Amino acid sequence: xxxxxxxxxxxxxxxxxxxxxxxxxxxxxxTVSDVVSAVHERWxxxxxxxxxxxVAVGVDYAExxxxxxxxxxxxxxxxxQGG
Amino acid sequence: MHRELILTExxxxxxxxxxxxxxxxxxxxxxxxxxxxxxxxxxxxxAGLEYTAFEAMARHQFGLLLxxxxxxxxxxxxxxxxxxxxxxxxxxxxxVEVLAPHRAEAFAACQMLIDEMKRVVPIWKRVMxxxxxxxxxxxxxSEP
Lengths: 83, 144
Prior knowledge:
The structure holds two protein chains of two kinds.
Chain A: E1 2-9, H1 13-17, E2 21-27, H2 32-42, E3 54-57, E4 60-61, E5 73-77
Parallel strand pairs in A: 1-5
Antiparallel strand pairs in A: 1-2, 3-4, 3-5
Chain B: E1 2-8, H1 14-19, E2 29-36, E3 40-41, E4 44-53, H2 55-72, E5 77-83, E6 85-88, E7 92-100, H3 103-120, E8 123-129
Helix pairs in contact in B: 2-3
């Protein structure tokens, strides 16, 4: 069974994808890294930025190996620049 | 530790914030920091910067940073104000106040807060170029 994960884009990633929110499907047992890969399949322009892309699940930063669960909200964004 | 975090689209009135500082006889050090938008980026003049945030996560990450401050130093109070939206060159985009018994921990806590904010708090800025009515430019590569 596949999981439907909501993905939020922030900063100029919104312009690159043309959206602030999308849904991607990943297999049950998938990880954060799998979600990112699914995003890159749909928006290849983001793929070259993978090394600098920050990923959060909810309001906490997430490692690539972290499993995702139904209902998780994943966010992708570029390096932060406050101040 | 008292903590206040304000994310605002309104100008930061530094005098008002200083005037509202908590009274007391236990803090021997008051460190404040004002971050001001420079008028140039990479050598080119700019109109200002436009700030955006993933606000729920920004508040959460600021909270975690303040937890670290409280665990590490005997800081009595931190107040932090960060502008959102367009901010003209010359205006204050960030104001931080740290109250502590002694200057060493007040300086250290203030420095750590700002350094770590720039690493983990999801706030972004983009250049507002001059001469196009202040609309946001494409570049997101503003200087630190």
